[in-house]
Amino acid sequence: MSDDIDPTAFDAAADIDDAAAAVRDGELVVYPTETVYGLAADATDPEAIERVFEAKSRSRDEPVSMAVPDVDTALAYTCPTEREERFMREFLPGPVTVVVDRWETLPDVLTAGRSKIGIRIPDHLVAMALLETTPPLTATSANVSGNPSATNLDELDAITEAAAVVLDGGETGGTGSTVVDVEAGTVHRRGADADAVEAWLEES
Q1: Could you report the per-residue pLDDT of 48-72, keeping only the tens digit for each?
Q2: Of the residues 89, 139, 189, 195, which has the maximum number of CB atoms within 10 A of its CB?
C-alpha cells in the first residue's frame, strides 16, 4: 500500500458504504487511485458499463479495464498464462494494467468484444477499501474523453454530475498506469513503473 496516502483524509472523506451501495445499484462512483481519479461501475453489469461510456462520451470501440482487489480475484474472471500470473503477482497492486485473456462471462461491452481485458489492482487505501466490498469495477479515468485526467477533486470535469458518489482521496500520483501485454512483450502505454516493467520483460 502506498506510504504517501493520508489515512485521516481517508477516514474523514471516503464514504465507502454509500459508494459500494451505489455500485450495487448500477450507479457510477468517482474514486481515487495512486495514478488518477477513476470512474467506477460494476464491471459485470452491462447496463452499468453503458453508463460509464455515456458519462465519458467514450466510443464503444474502446475497451475499458477492470479493477479487482487482488490477483486471486482476477483469476476468477481471466485466464492468464503462468508467466502473466507471475508478472501480476510481482507488480500488483501497483500502477500497472496487465492485458490478459478474459473469460466469456465478462460483458462484451466492457472489452469492445475483444478476447482480452486490462486488469488493475490499485495501490490506494480508498480504492482498495471500495473494491473489497463490491464486484469488480471499471478502471477508467474520471473525465470526459479527450479532457485531461484528474488528480484532485478540483480538476474533475462535468462527469461528476453523472456520479452518485464521489470519494475524496486527496491528491493522486498524476501519472497514468503502464499498460502491458506480458505474453506479447509489449508496453502499450508507458506510465508509472514503466522502466521496471520493461526490465522484467527483458529478464524474464
Answers
A1: 999 999 999 999 999 999 999 999 9
A2: 139
